[in-house]
Design brief:
Layout: H1 2-10, H2 30-75, E1 78-79, E2 87-88, H3 92-98, H4 101-132, H5 139-145, H6 148-151, H7 154-164, H8 171-178, H9 190-218, H10 222-230, H11 235-246, H12 248-263, H13 267-272, H14 289-299, H15 303-334
Antiparallel strand pairs: 1-2
Length: 335
């Protein structure tokens, strides 16, 4: 009874000022959040930085390579004149090339100039590289000298050779006259004109290919040459049996690159012909596919036909690349 009366008179007990254990303040979350954000940024940087470094190449390729390629393919399916509207023609431009005498003549000229310029060029480059691979006095000077024609501009080299092959007062006809031969019309005749253009190409690119071969030859192990010498092989036999098989991939590479360059030959025949350079001479005797494409696009204004020629050249280059892959695979299987 006394306990009940005391509890009633005292009233409710005051609340405990201390908070419950569960209500204690949490530590600040700022440092942990910043750490997680930095870790996320680091992962993004690790993944995105390589793409950022290579993106300028892909952007430039898309702007100056892929877009012109696609647009040229679109133009090849239309009839387009300079300053006019495009008119859908389908494959008419390609069938027109098939029936065009000028196209087949330009294709034949491209092939013949490519053969008579590429084969001697690579053979001479092999010989020069073989000589430079041995210890010669002034070897460094000769290695720089063979690259000098490549550093010369196409315009300067072609203009000099055009004077040398001039039919009236050129040095070549003068020397032929001393030897008792009649003067040769280097510009108006088909084969002399193609030979003259091929000489320009050979002069410009032989040293370049020779340095490529020289770099490949220096990577051939010397033990192979020593073993061949112990077997009594001469330098010529070492060159044929050791050097050539060892640098066969490099030779195949230069053949493909030189063939592509011959397919795209433009500057030398255009400058050699002077005012008739675009048409490949008075009778088109040295007009290449590149010159025909330029004439169709910018002289006659037929951009659709010029685009079709460009795509035919692309298909030819792809065909050359496919042949190169087949030959490389055959070499790997044979070895």
């Amino acid at each position: 009874m006394a306990t009940s009366v005391r509890a009633a008179t005292d009233g409710p007990s005051p609340p405990d000022p201390s908070p419950p254990p569960s209500a204690s303040p949490a530590p600040p979350a700022g440092p942990a959040a910043r750490g997680a954000w930095r870790s996320r940024l680091y992962r993004w940087d690790l993944k995105a930085t390589p793409y950022a470094f290579v993106s300028p190449f892909f952007l430039c390729f898309a702007a100056f390579g892929l877009f012109p390629l696609i647009h040229t393919g679109w133009l090849s399916l239309h009839r387009v004149e300079l300053g006019g509207e495009a008119e859908w023609r389908g494959l008419d431009n390609y069938t027109g090339l098939w029936d065009s005498e000028f196209f087949w003549r330009a294709l034949a000229n491209t092939f013949t100039i490519g053969v008579i310029s590429t084969v001697p060029q690579l053979l001479m480059a092999l010989g020069l590289a073989h000589l430079l691979n041995y210890r010669l006095r002034g070897r460094g000077f000769f290695r720089v000298a063979v690259l000098a024609p490549y550093a010369t501009s196409i315009a300067a080299a072609t203009l000099v050779f055009a004077q040398l092959f001039n039919s009236d007062y050129g040095l070549i006809n003068t020397v032929l006259g001393w030897a008792g031969f009649d003067p040769v019309d280097w510009e108006s005749s088909q084969w002399p004109a193609q030979i003259a253009i091929s000489v320009i190409v050979i002069w410009r690119w032989t040293g370049y290919n020779a340095l490529i071969y020289l770099a490949a030859m220096q990577a051939v192990p010397q033990e192979l040459y020593e073993a061949a010498a112990l077997d009594g092989a001469s330098r010529w036999r070492q060159f044929v049996s050791v050097t050539i098989p060892s640098i066969r991939p490099t030779i195949l590479f230069t053949i493909v690159v030189s063939t592509i360059g011959a397919t795209q030959l433009f500057g030398e025949p255009m400058l050699f012909g002077g005012s008739l350079g675009v048409s490949g001479g008075s009778g088109g005797q040295f007009q290449t596919l590149s010159l025909l494409m330029y004439e169709k696009g910018w002289v006659t204004g037929a951009l659709g036909q010029a685009s079709a020629i460009a795509w035919v050249m692309l298909l030819l280059l792809l065909l050359i690349g496919a042949v190169r892959l087949l030959v490389a695979r055959w070499n790997r299987e044979a070895s």
